[in-house]
Protein 1
Amino acid sequence: MTRTSLEEWLKDCLGRRLEKADWAVVALPGGALQISHGTDGGEVLIEEDGSNVSDAGDRPSILIATNLDDAPEGDFFEVFTRDARSDSLFRSISNALLMHSLRVDGVDREQSLRRRDYELKEIIEIGKSLSAQKNVDSLLSMILEKSRHLIGADAGSIYVVEASSDDNDKTQLRFKLSQNDSIHYESREFVMPVSADSIAGAAVVMKRSIDIPDVHNIPKEAPYKFDSTWDERMAYRTCSVLAVPMINQVGEVLGVVQLINKKRNPSARLLSPGDFDREVIPMDARGKDLVETLASQAGVAMENAFLYVEIKRIFDGFVRASVHTIEQRDPTTSGHSFRVASLTRALAEVVHNQSDGKYADVKFDDEILKEIETAALLHDFGKVGVREEVLVKAKKLYPPNLKIVRARFDFIRRSIENDHLQRRLMMIEEGTPEQELAILDHGSQRALSEIDECWRIISSANEPTILAEGDFKKVEEVASRNYFDLNGKRQPYLEAEELKALLVAKGSLTPEELEEIRSHAAHTISFLKKIPWGKSMKNLPLFAGAHHEKLNGSGYPYGLKEDEIPLPAKIMAVADIFDALTAADRPYKKAVSLERALQILDFEVKDNHIDGDLVQLFRDNEVYRVLNEPGAAEGKIK
Ligand SMILES: [Fe+2]
Ligand SMILES: [Fe+2]
């Protein structure tokens, strides 16, 4: 059978139906006919005597055999002889077309289900990633990137709604960032009013997506316009735009994700006008649905990220306010905690950056650095549990006690003068010769001088300097003297407590007071342990409370050994000692020079109190310079 005769034969079989516009018959090179049905896309192949048609594919085949007995083996939908009735042939072709279109539909449906399954998984994955991201900028970047990916957009930008800088009750729209697959450029943040004049603004005001197939053909009644300035400047051509608002749980719009130019081929780059003509198409309904789903997740994630930032800000503010309050109890150490925090963080960063040496393997991520810095800020928090008079004690005797001693000495002095005058009066009445009166006067003068000398010794011993051996004896000698009070009772020049305070060999504090001051480290731990720091800062109380521990185990509060002291506490110890040495002059203590401070740190290393490698890094990297930066709490190093 020739092709023409088969076509004729088929035409004869199918009659007028073959001439309908929705039928098409195509002669294939092997002599077979391909019949397709325009309405449902079904196809059927009619082979002639089983001739081998290689591109038969999944189409149902009908064989027109010359002799049924000689029909070749094969998976045919139907086998006819050439004299088959036209109506049965037509019915078979119709059934084969129907079967084919059902099969095609099935495949389409399966592909569509697979695609939806993929998109669902993608959306779930995006949701997980979004909720894990706490950094607002990274979150926004991720939202834009994922939205573009879901719809196949060439470019996009993201905006956030924030309080207006002029009026806190009003809002403004801040352009945060943009992405573009075709051109690279640096975008800068800017603000614009929340108004329906712009596409992004309209999405905020209307609280719904704005889908524009072509920004150059925006309907006249639309309130928004397209601003082509950027396109002109960058030689870009925006065409399709989809702006989707990101809304939180209580219906407030937090931002807008704006997608530009959906592409037929998502990986294509738009470089020439032809690329734009060929590739850019309007946003599709499915893509829009997906982006809207993502935007609703993004709204929740943004709300969480904003809350996280706000909580952190409140927390930082509270910590700083608490530290300020504590430091106000002792104005002479004002700013110490802030400086120690700056020094500690800077030294921790230096340790983190080491690629060789003892600390090459130590890495502190941002969370740990924050934990270390906060611990340093709060390291002396326990001073709240130390009596203020002890905290600010500058001399060995408290001022009221010194006043009492002074009043006592005034009394003794006046008593000597009174005694002298009474005796002199008596002697004059008795007619005692001038010579003896002179001896009496002289004795009285000497007694007064002795009192003055005693007072001088006390005043001198009251200073928190290191006492020489001889001075101890003098103070004890003063204390051993007696006088008579108004009741004629013998009383010592110095009470036992006063003598004990004046006999302090170094500094101004008695051993008990020293112990009370030292208790601040234990108080720091017990106070800070009461605060639920959460996972990221769980070690903070220990870091903060171990800043007075020494490598040789002689520190406090626990007498920890070198390998028991956490590294952040060792870092803090260097910062703490350095600041105590270099801080501005105090009434009882001169600030030492940078060189001297570094030398004293070396002595501390030699005594096995602090870590020598840390001191070396502190010196080599001039970590102390951080105090000259703004915000380091008046910590200029001399
Ligand atoms: Fe301390
Ligand atoms: Fe301190």
Protein 2
Amino acid sequence: MRLSYIAAVAATLGFATAAINQTGNACIVTPLSATSTSTNLDDSDQIKDAFRRCGKNGRIEFTPGDYYVGKVMDMLDLQNVDVDIYGTFIWSKDIQYWLRNSISVTYAGRSTAWRVGGSNIAFRGHGQALFFGNGQTWYDQNRNQGNQNGRPISFTLWKATNVLIDGITWRQPQFWHTFVAHSQNITMTNLDMNATSNSQWSTVNTDGTDTWNSRDIVIRNWTVTCGDDCISIKGNSTNVHVSNVTCHESGAMCIGSIGSNANQPDYVENIVFENIKAYHSSNAAWIKTYPGTGYVRNVTFRNIEFDDVNQPIYISPCIYTGQNCDSSRLRISDIKWENIKGTSRYNIGAGIHCSAAAPCQNLQFSGIDIKKKNGGSAVKYLCSNIQNQASSGLQCTGPCPGNFPQQLNGDR
Ligand SMILES: *[C@@H]1O[C@H](CO)[C@@H](O)[C@H](O)[C@H]1NC(C)=O
Ligand SMILES: *[C@@H]1O[C@H](CO)[C@@H](O)[C@H](O)[C@H]1NC(C)=O
Ligand SMILES: *[C@@H]1O[C@H](CO)[C@@H](O)[C@H](O)[C@H]1NC(C)=O
Ligand SMILES: *[C@@H]1O[C@H](CO)[C@@H](O)[C@H](O)[C@H]1NC(C)=O
Ligand SMILES: *[C@@H]1O[C@H](CO)[C@@H](O)[C@H](O)[C@H]1NC(C)=O
Ligand SMILES: *[C@@H]1O[C@H](CO)[C@@H](O)[C@H](O)[C@H]1NC(C)=O
Ligand SMILES: *[C@@H]1O[C@H](CO)[C@@H](O)[C@H](O)[C@H]1NC(C)=O
């Protein structure tokens, strides 16, 4: 057995000792902070080094302690690797660095701090791994202005197949917690996420996860507080099963937004959301598209329980702009809502406006039990352009305008 102990002196970082203890293809990593009290530590080089050494047919263990991440990490060729993380990863607050260097993920000008790809990869946090994004710095400098190009997604799976991500906690991510793109057979279980601003500025777009151009995804047992979409299924996602997810302060279970580029169709199909809880959230089970092309079909929202949700069920073909709602050709069909129970903040249970140019087909509702939060009175279900509406199972109480808002600010 080959045993080599590699210790490097990182002189520029205040004489901290980087330690990767490699035995064959197993790397055990100790954080710089274990041997240095410098306030200027950066573990990203030794983290990348560990993945270079042991990221193929190997195992990498991060022992407990604080790992500082001051640079982007891009590792796209991992193969047959088990990664066990017992420590805390802390991303730097150097906004100017990240704005310049975050790795593009092509989707809508977004980028990421850490990109992982390859095949047969397992990241296990054993309930001990913590990814701390120092997001408050981002929320404060962003001042509610929007997505901000270069503001990095915490963790991205990119061209990855056969992946397990398990038992990891995220706090204060810089932007979205996770993103799954161009990937297949991805299982993400037992994750705990929380982005909460402690200042006057909102977190802005700290989604739990977004899937895009990916298939065969399992998401199970997550708890998410995020101020934006909890689980969001974007264009060209197929076969996604989401279960046992609890979302706070979020958009809960969402398809979209998709169809933003009229020249590129977006297809979403075979999606199940079940055993979901949503608290104090904007929406619970909903679909948002631009007036684009492609389709959303075969989606089930089942056993969704919620409390104090602004507008539980919502469909818009013209999200964000409220323009050209009736010219969208992006067809929404074969969608089920089963056992959808809880309280709505105002007097609206559902606002559903489908495009006149491509009416929704085969929407099926059963076990819909939504009451207004204060007083428990009946709510309205507004519907437009649902084909065979009378047999949908939803007792529509009136039409829904094309530009009906996602966020209501009072009774209608
Ligand atoms: C390196 O790892 C091996 C295998 O786990 C262990 O036996 C050895 O004590 C470690 N050495 C150091 C210096 O940590
Ligand atoms: C999917 O990935 C898992 C590892 O997370 C693996 O055990 C399983 O065999 C893969 N399934 C297929 C069909 O390749
Ligand atoms: C669900 O995930 C949490 C971590 O967020 C974990 O503590 C709990 O044990 C998991 N539950 C099950 C049934 O695995
Ligand atoms: C998320 O963090 C905030 C701020 O620390 C805390 O108030 C809230 O309870 C947390 N959410 C959950 C579900 O624990
Ligand atoms: C998922 O939720 C269902 C219904 O609440 C429950 O019966 C089941 O034990 C949960 N499973 C996990 C893995 O948490
Ligand atoms: C979705 O997939 C279709 C067919 O492969 C492709 O033409 C289209 O560009 C993809 N859309 C996006 C937004 O990537
Ligand atoms: C609809 O999606 C479910 C869940 O992915 C799948 O089992 C079923 O076969 C799909 N139905 C059709 C008609 O494709």
